[in-house]
Amino acid sequence: MKNQKLKRMVLFVGIICVIFGCGLGNVHADVYKDGLITVKHEELPVKRDGQRIQFDHPHKLTGDFVTKVLSDIYYKEKGLFKRKETLKVFQDEEIKKSVPLIVQAFSVAISTQAIAVTSYSYRMILSDKKNYCTLFVADRCLNIVFGRVHMFQTFNDVMSEKKRYLITRENPAKKRRSSFWKLIPSAGQRIEPGHENWLIVDLSK
Question: Which single residue of 86, 116, 163, 188 could bond 42 by disulfide (Cβ 3.0 to 4.6 Å)?
Fold first, then answer.
Protein backbone atom coordinates (compact mmCIF):
# COMPACT_ATOMS: atom_id res chain seq x y z
CA MET A 1 0.00 0.00 0.00
CA LYS A 2 2.77 2.37 0.97
CA ASN A 3 4.67 1.47 -2.21
CA GLN A 4 1.64 2.31 -4.35
CA LYS A 5 1.22 5.69 -2.66
CA LEU A 6 4.92 6.39 -3.14
CA LYS A 7 4.75 5.45 -6.81
CA ARG A 8 1.74 7.70 -7.31
CA MET A 9 3.50 10.57 -5.56
CA VAL A 10 6.63 10.15 -7.70
CA LEU A 11 4.51 9.97 -10.87
CA PHE A 12 2.58 13.11 -9.87
CA VAL A 13 5.77 15.05 -9.13
CA GLY A 14 7.26 13.88 -12.43
CA ILE A 15 4.23 15.08 -14.40
CA ILE A 16 4.32 18.47 -12.66
CA CYS A 17 8.02 18.84 -13.42
CA VAL A 18 7.49 18.00 -17.09
CA ILE A 19 4.61 20.49 -17.41
CA PHE A 20 6.47 23.32 -15.72
CA GLY A 21 9.72 22.45 -17.47
CA CYS A 22 8.08 22.69 -20.89
CA GLY A 23 6.36 25.90 -19.92
CA LEU A 24 9.53 27.59 -18.73
CA GLY A 25 11.38 26.45 -21.81
CA ASN A 26 8.96 28.44 -23.95
CA VAL A 27 8.61 31.60 -21.88
CA HIS A 28 8.68 34.25 -24.56
CA ALA A 29 6.06 36.26 -26.36
CA ASP A 30 5.40 35.87 -30.06
CA VAL A 31 4.03 39.41 -30.37
CA TYR A 32 5.58 42.61 -29.01
CA LYS A 33 3.70 45.92 -29.19
CA ASP A 34 4.25 49.59 -28.42
CA GLY A 35 1.40 51.77 -29.61
CA LEU A 36 1.11 51.39 -33.39
CA ILE A 37 4.34 49.38 -33.58
CA THR A 38 3.94 45.58 -33.78
CA VAL A 39 6.86 43.14 -33.88
CA LYS A 40 6.15 39.43 -34.10
CA HIS A 41 7.67 36.07 -35.02
CA GLU A 42 6.56 34.69 -38.37
CA GLU A 43 7.15 31.20 -39.76
CA LEU A 44 7.98 32.40 -43.27
CA PRO A 45 9.79 30.38 -45.93
CA VAL A 46 12.42 32.60 -47.55
CA LYS A 47 14.29 31.24 -50.56
CA ARG A 48 17.48 32.21 -52.35
CA ASP A 49 18.40 30.45 -55.61
CA GLY A 50 15.52 28.04 -55.03
CA GLN A 51 16.81 26.94 -51.62
CA ARG A 52 15.12 27.80 -48.33
CA ILE A 53 17.32 30.03 -46.17
CA GLN A 54 18.11 28.73 -42.70
CA PHE A 55 17.98 31.60 -40.25
CA ASP A 56 20.73 32.07 -37.68
CA HIS A 57 18.28 32.55 -34.82
CA PRO A 58 18.20 33.31 -31.97
CA HIS A 59 20.64 36.15 -32.53
CA LYS A 60 21.94 38.90 -30.27
CA LEU A 61 21.76 42.38 -31.79
CA THR A 62 22.50 45.57 -29.89
CA GLY A 63 20.06 48.43 -29.73
CA ASP A 64 22.66 50.86 -31.08
CA PHE A 65 23.28 48.66 -34.12
CA VAL A 66 19.59 48.23 -34.95
CA THR A 67 19.01 51.97 -34.46
CA LYS A 68 21.77 52.81 -36.95
CA VAL A 69 20.52 50.29 -39.50
CA LEU A 70 16.93 51.55 -39.38
CA SER A 71 18.09 55.18 -39.48
CA ASP A 72 20.07 54.52 -42.66
CA ILE A 73 17.26 52.98 -44.71
CA TYR A 74 16.17 55.19 -47.60
CA TYR A 75 13.90 54.91 -50.61
CA LYS A 76 12.88 56.79 -53.74
CA GLU A 77 9.37 57.19 -55.03
CA LYS A 78 8.22 55.99 -58.43
CA GLY A 79 5.37 57.22 -60.57
CA LEU A 80 4.09 60.37 -62.20
CA PHE A 81 3.89 62.44 -59.01
CA LYS A 82 7.07 61.14 -57.38
CA ARG A 83 9.33 63.34 -55.29
CA LYS A 84 12.86 63.54 -56.62
CA GLU A 85 14.73 63.42 -53.31
CA THR A 86 15.78 60.32 -51.39
CA LEU A 87 13.52 59.79 -48.36
CA LYS A 88 13.89 58.04 -45.00
CA VAL A 89 11.70 55.00 -44.48
CA PHE A 90 11.43 55.24 -40.69
CA GLN A 91 10.80 58.29 -38.56
CA ASP A 92 12.71 58.81 -35.33
CA GLU A 93 9.73 57.92 -33.14
CA GLU A 94 9.13 54.69 -35.08
CA ILE A 95 12.77 53.72 -34.62
CA LYS A 96 12.77 54.55 -30.91
CA LYS A 97 9.77 52.29 -30.28
CA SER A 98 10.73 49.52 -32.71
CA VAL A 99 14.34 48.91 -31.67
CA PRO A 100 13.83 47.31 -28.21
CA LEU A 101 11.02 45.13 -29.60
CA ILE A 102 13.19 43.94 -32.50
CA VAL A 103 16.16 43.20 -30.21
CA GLN A 104 13.92 41.18 -27.88
CA ALA A 105 12.27 39.27 -30.75
CA PHE A 106 15.64 38.29 -32.24
CA SER A 107 16.91 37.08 -28.86
CA VAL A 108 14.26 34.36 -28.60
CA ALA A 109 13.40 33.57 -32.25
CA ILE A 110 14.01 30.05 -33.52
CA SER A 111 15.69 29.06 -36.79
CA THR A 112 12.43 29.01 -38.80
CA GLN A 113 11.10 32.35 -37.55
CA ALA A 114 11.62 35.71 -39.22
CA ILE A 115 10.89 38.96 -37.40
CA ALA A 116 7.93 40.86 -38.87
CA VAL A 117 7.65 44.59 -38.15
CA THR A 118 4.57 46.71 -38.82
CA SER A 119 4.67 50.41 -38.02
CA TYR A 120 2.66 53.52 -38.74
CA SER A 121 4.07 57.02 -39.00
CA TYR A 122 2.45 60.01 -37.37
CA ARG A 123 -1.09 60.83 -38.38
CA MET A 124 -1.77 63.68 -40.80
CA ILE A 125 -5.38 64.69 -41.42
CA LEU A 126 -6.77 61.37 -40.17
CA SER A 127 -4.31 59.28 -42.16
CA ASP A 128 -1.21 57.18 -41.47
CA LYS A 129 1.63 55.80 -43.53
CA LYS A 130 2.38 52.13 -43.05
CA ASN A 131 5.73 50.35 -43.20
CA TYR A 132 5.93 46.55 -43.20
CA CYS A 133 9.09 44.46 -43.36
CA THR A 134 10.60 41.20 -42.21
CA LEU A 135 14.09 40.82 -40.76
CA PHE A 136 16.30 37.77 -40.37
CA VAL A 137 19.96 36.87 -39.93
CA ALA A 138 21.61 34.38 -42.28
CA ASP A 139 25.22 33.84 -43.38
CA ARG A 140 26.45 36.55 -40.99
CA CYS A 141 24.18 39.14 -42.61
CA LEU A 142 21.10 41.00 -41.44
CA ASN A 143 18.41 40.90 -44.12
CA ILE A 144 15.57 43.44 -44.21
CA VAL A 145 12.83 42.75 -46.77
CA PHE A 146 10.04 45.28 -47.28
CA GLY A 147 6.49 44.62 -48.35
CA ARG A 148 5.17 48.15 -47.76
CA VAL A 149 6.91 51.52 -47.57
CA HIS A 150 4.92 54.63 -46.56
CA MET A 151 1.72 53.07 -47.77
CA PHE A 152 -1.06 55.63 -47.32
CA GLN A 153 -3.61 54.51 -44.74
CA THR A 154 -6.89 56.16 -43.84
CA PHE A 155 -8.14 55.87 -40.27
CA ASN A 156 -10.56 53.11 -41.34
CA ASP A 157 -7.72 51.24 -43.06
CA VAL A 158 -5.70 51.27 -39.85
CA MET A 159 -8.59 49.96 -37.76
CA SER A 160 -9.30 47.21 -40.30
CA GLU A 161 -5.61 46.29 -40.48
CA LYS A 162 -5.41 45.92 -36.71
CA LYS A 163 -8.42 43.60 -36.68
CA ARG A 164 -7.10 41.21 -39.32
CA TYR A 165 -3.37 41.46 -38.53
CA LEU A 166 -3.33 38.42 -36.27
CA ILE A 167 -4.79 36.10 -38.91
CA THR A 168 -3.05 37.31 -42.08
CA ARG A 169 0.52 36.99 -43.24
CA GLU A 170 2.56 38.55 -45.97
CA ASN A 171 5.89 37.29 -47.27
CA PRO A 172 7.82 40.28 -48.69
CA ALA A 173 10.60 37.95 -49.94
CA LYS A 174 8.21 36.76 -52.66
CA LYS A 175 7.95 40.34 -53.87
CA ARG A 176 10.68 41.83 -56.06
CA ARG A 177 9.61 45.41 -56.58
CA SER A 178 6.88 47.96 -56.03
CA SER A 179 5.26 50.27 -58.55
CA PHE A 180 5.55 53.12 -56.05
CA TRP A 181 9.01 52.90 -54.43
CA LYS A 182 12.44 51.29 -54.44
CA LEU A 183 15.05 51.03 -51.68
CA ILE A 184 18.30 52.99 -51.99
CA PRO A 185 21.23 51.27 -50.20
CA SER A 186 23.37 53.38 -47.87
CA ALA A 187 27.02 52.79 -46.99
CA GLY A 188 27.43 49.26 -45.61
CA GLN A 189 24.24 48.04 -47.27
CA ARG A 190 23.59 46.18 -50.50
CA ILE A 191 20.55 45.07 -52.45
CA GLU A 192 19.66 41.40 -52.94
CA PRO A 193 20.13 40.64 -56.68
CA GLY A 194 16.86 40.82 -58.57
CA HIS A 195 15.08 42.75 -55.81
CA GLU A 196 14.35 46.42 -55.13
CA ASN A 197 12.85 45.73 -51.70
CA TRP A 198 15.54 43.62 -49.97
CA LEU A 199 18.48 45.15 -48.09
CA ILE A 200 21.46 43.20 -46.73
CA VAL A 201 23.83 44.40 -44.00
CA ASP A 202 27.07 42.50 -43.32
CA LEU A 203 27.39 41.72 -39.60
CA SER A 204 31.02 40.64 -39.81
CA LYS A 205 32.34 44.14 -40.52
Answer: 116
